[in-house]
Amino acid sequence: MKSPTHSFYRYLEAAYDHFNKALFNGRLPTCLLTVQREKNVMGYFSANRWTDPQGTVVHEIAVNPAYFARHNLLEVMQTIVHEMVHNWQHCFGKPSRNGYHNKEWAEKMDLIGLIPSSTGRPGGRRTGQKVSDYPRPGGAFERAARAFIRQSKGLPWVDRIAALSPSCQQREKDVAWDEDLADLETDARVEEEQLAALLHCPISELFQDLVPSEQLQLAARKKVKSRYTCPHCRTNVWGKPGLKLVCGECGDAYGEHEAVLRISDLS
After folding, report:
1. What pLDDT score does 197 carry?
2. What is the pLDDT of residues 6-18, one digit of tens each?
3. Which one of 28, 73, 233, 265 is least enclosed by Cβ atoms within 10 Å?
4. Number of helices (H), then strands (E), in the chain
5. Rounded to two decimals, what is the model's pTM?
6. What is the residue range of 32's domain?
7. Do 160 and 220 belong together in one domain?
C-alpha cells in the first residue's frame, strides 16, 4: 500500500498546483500545505510562516480535515482556492488587517469564479472578517474543479471522526446524491454528469467506515474543555467550549480548536 501520508498530501499539493496554473497563471509561489483542526474554520492562510536552515521563507495554507466528510469535494477545493486568493493578495495586492476580506480580495474572487458572501449564498456581504463564497455556475473555478476531478478523482483519505457543525448539517440536507449516475454508460455528456455528481456528493457518501453522527455527538458531550489559539501570536488558552476570547497582545480573536476525539472516546 502506498504511504497514506504521501498520497493525502500529494493530493492537496496537486490541487494547489492545478488551480495555480488554471486560475492564477502559475504566478503564486510555492507554499507549505498543512492540515489543522480549528473549530468553525475550513482553512486559513498564514504569510511567511515557515523557514528552512538556509533562511528561505514560505507561506502556509492550512485546511481542516475534520470537516471534509460533512462537505463535498467542491467545497474542499473552494477552501483551498479561497486561501490561494489570500496568498495572491499578499504577494501582488494590498491585504488589510489579519484575516480581513477587503474589496480587492473580493474582486479577485469574482474574477476567478468564486462569489464572496458572508453566508456562502447569494445576498451575503462581500467583505468582512468572516466571508465564505459560492461558485459561479460555469465560471472559471467550476471549470477548473471539474478538470481536476477528471484527472485526480476524489480524496484518497478522510478523517473517520468527522466534525459536526450547523453548516455541515445543513449541507447534508441541501445536497442530493443521485446514485443512478454511477450506473450510466460513459459518454461525454454522462461523464460531465458524473463529474458534477462527484463534486457535489457529500464526501461521507464515498467512504464506508466513518463514525456515525449520533455516536460523535454522544462522545462530544464528554469533552469539557476546548483549546483556543491566537492566529497571530499562536498562544494557547483552555476553557469551556464556546468562549469568545481576544488576545491581549495583538487584539485578534482566539480561534477555538475542534475537540480531537479518539476512537477510544467512542466506546
Report:
1. 67
2. 999 999 999 999 9
3. 233
4. 7, 8
5. 0.72
6. 4-210
7. no
C-alpha cell at 179: 446514485
How is residue 214 written as a grid cell?
A: 449520533
Give Cβ neighbours of residue 126 (< 8 Å, ≥ 6 apart). 101, 103, 106, 116, 117, 118
Count CB-CB contacts under 10 A for residue 105.
Answer: 23
Is there a contact between 19 and 81 (Cβ–Cβ < 8 Å)? yes
Query: Do both 75 and 145 map to the same domain?
Result: yes
The whole-angstrom separation of Cα 175 and Cα 98 is 33
- Please tell me whether residues 118 and 153 are part of one structural domain: yes
**Same domain (yes/no): 158, 81:** yes
- Residue in the structure block whose three cell numbers are 472559471: 140
Q: Say yes or no: 257 and 184 in one domain.
A: no
* Residue 35 β-bridge partners: 63
β-bridge partners, 57: 51
Question: Grid coordinates 468527522 are at which residue?
Answer: 162
